[in-house]
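Progress note, sequence design subtask.
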C-alpha cells in the first residue's frame, strides 16, 4: 500500500496553511532538501551553479551529500552522511519494518525478482536506502516541504524511500548515466514514477524516459547553465597552428582514441595544430601510448585534471573545442556535456560527434560542425575551414552565443525548476 494523499499532507505542506474554508494560505518559506551523491564535486560544476541560482531566487535549501563531499558551499552547510551510522540499521530496519511492513515487503520482492545491472549500481541503491532509513526519524521530526534528488541513483533511492516510509513528497533529476549505463539504474522506473516531477537537462533524456513508460506530462527538460555569461573573446586573426582543446574524463564514452586519429589525419593533411586534452581517467596511459604510436605525441598535450578556473583558461587559449563522444559498450553516453555550451559562450567554435544530445546545441553549419567519429575526412575539412574562413567563423560564433543566451542561463533555468517545485507545494 502506498501513502495516500492524506498521508502526504502533514509533512508536504508545511509551506502552506489551510484555512477552515480550505483555502491555501502562505506560511514561512518552504524548505527544500537537496540530495546529492557527492557535493560539492569539481567535475559537477553544473550542480553547484544550480544551487547558487536557487539560493539567488530565495530558496531555503538543505544540502545532503550521501557519499563524499560535505563541509560547506558558498556559506551553506553540506551535511555528509556518516557511513558508521549504517550500523544502526541493525535495529532501525526491524523498527521501520514494524511501522511500515508493506515497504519491507516491496523492497524484498524487488531484491529477489530482479538483478542489478552492475555491482556499482547495486551498492549505489543500497547507499540511498541506508541513508533514508537512518534519516527517517530526523525527517519526521523536522519534515522538509520537498525532497529533491539531484541524481537518479542513490539520491533518488533515498528520496523514494523517504516518500514510501515517511510520506515526504519528492522530485528527482535523471541524467544520461542514470538512464543508459548498463541499461539504466536498477529501480529507476519505480523511483521516478511517483515523483511529483522529473527534471532532465536534455530532450534526449526526456524522450528516453517517456519511452520507458513514464508520464511525459511531468517530465521537464530544463537545461543547466552558467551563473554569469562571460565576454566573447575576439577571433584570432591568424589561426595557424589551429589551437584545439578537448575537456573530458578519459573514459570510453568520450571516444578519445577516435580523436587522436583525427589529429593524426590533420597532421597528414598538412593542417598545423596544437591540441590539449584536459582531464584524467583510467585510459590516460593507453591514450598517451596511442598518441606516440600515431606520431602525434609532440602535437598533443595531456594536461590531467585542472580546476575549473584553469579550464576557462584553456578555453581562452583555444580556437576550437572537439568532442568525440560515442556510446560505450556499457551503454553509457553523454547527455549534453556542459563544456560544449561553456565553449560556445566564450566564442570557442565546436566540432562534435552526434552521439547523445550534443546536437541539441550544435547544429551543423549553424552553431558548429557535426560529424561521426569515423568520418575523419569531415573532421579534417571542418577544422581546415575553421582555420581560414574568418567570415564563416564569426557567423558560427554569433549563432552559438545566441543559443547559450537563450538556453544556458543558470538563473533563468533555475527559476523554471523552482517554479515546478512551488507548484508541487501548492497542490
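Output:
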Amino acid at each position: 500500500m502506498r501513502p495516500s494523499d492524506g498521508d502526504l499532507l502533514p509533512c508536504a505542506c508545511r509551506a502552506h496553511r489551510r484555512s477552515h474554508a480550505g483555502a491555501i494560505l502562505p506560511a514561512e518559506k518552504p524548505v527544500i532538501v537537496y540530495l546529492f551523491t557527492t557535493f560539492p564535486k569539481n567535475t559537477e560544476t553544473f550542480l553547484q551553479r544550480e544551487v547558487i541560482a536557487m539560493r539567488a531566487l530565495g530558496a531555503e535549501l538543505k544540502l545532503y551529500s550521501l557519499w563524499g563531499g560535505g563541509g560547506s558551499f558558498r556559506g551553506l552547510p553540506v551535511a555528509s552522511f556518516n557511513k558508521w551510522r549504517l550500523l544502526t540499521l541493525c535495529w532501525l530496519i526491524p523498527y521501520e519494518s514494524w511501522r511500515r511492513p508493506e515497504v519491507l515487503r516491496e523492497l524484498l520482492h524487488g531484491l529477489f525478482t530482479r538483478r542489478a545491472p552492475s555491482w556499482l549500481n547495486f551498492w549505489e541503491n543500497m547507499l540511498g536506502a541506508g541513508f533514508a532509513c537512518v534519516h527517517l526519524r530526523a525527517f519526521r521530526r523536522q519534515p522538509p516541504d520537498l525532497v529533491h534528488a539531484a541524481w537518479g541513483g542513490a539520491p533518488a533511492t533515498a528520496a523514494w524511500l523517504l516518500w514510501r516510509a515517511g510520506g515526504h513528497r519528492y522530485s528527482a533529476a535523471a541524467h544520461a548515466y542514470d538512464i543508459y549505463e548498463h541499461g539504466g539504474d536498477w529501480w529507476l522506473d519505480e523511483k521516478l514514477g511517483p515523483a511529483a516531477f522529473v527534471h532532465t537537462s536534455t530532450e534526449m533524456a526526456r524522450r528516453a524516459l517517456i519511452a520507458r513508460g513514464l508520464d511525459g506530462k511531468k517530465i521537464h527538460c530544463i537545461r543547466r547553465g552558467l551563473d554569469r555569461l562571460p565576454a566573447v573573446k575576439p577571433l584570432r586573426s591568424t589561426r595557424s597552428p589551429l589551437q584545439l582543446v578537448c575537456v573530458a574524463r578519459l573514459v570510453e564514452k568520450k571516444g578519445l582514441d577516435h580523436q587522436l586519429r583525427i589529429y593524426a589525419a590533420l597532421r597528414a593533411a598538412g593542417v598545423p595544430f596544437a591540441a590539449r586534452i584536459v582531464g584524467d581517467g583510467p585510459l590516460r596511459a593507453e591514450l598517451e601510448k596511442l598518441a606516440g604510436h600515431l606520431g602525434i605525441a609532440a602535437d598533443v598535450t595531456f594536461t590531467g585534471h585542472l580546476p575549473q578556473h584553469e579550464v576557462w583558461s584553456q578555453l581562452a587559449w583555444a580556437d576550437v573545442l572537439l568532442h568525440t563522444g560515442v556510446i560505450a559498450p556499457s551503454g553509457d553516453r553523454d547527455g549534453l556535456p556542459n563544456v560544449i555550451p561553456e565553449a560556445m559562450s566564450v566564442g570557442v567554435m565546436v566540432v562534435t560527434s552526434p552521439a547523445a544530445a550534443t546536437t541539441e546545441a550544435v547544429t551543423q553549419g549553424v552553431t558548429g560542425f557535426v560529424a561521426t567519429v569515423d568520418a575523419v575526412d569531415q573532421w579534417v575539412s571542418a577544422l581546415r575551414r575553421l582555420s581560414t574562413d574568418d567570415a564563416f567563423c564569426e557567423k558560427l560564433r554569433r549563432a552559438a552565443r545566441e543559443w547559450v543566451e537563450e538556453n544556458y542561463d543558470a538563473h533563468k533555468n533555475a527559476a523554471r525548476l523552482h517554479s515546478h517545485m512551488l507548484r508541487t507545494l501548492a497542490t
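DSSP finds 16 helices and 16 strands in the chain. Work on this subtask will continue into the next period as scheduled.
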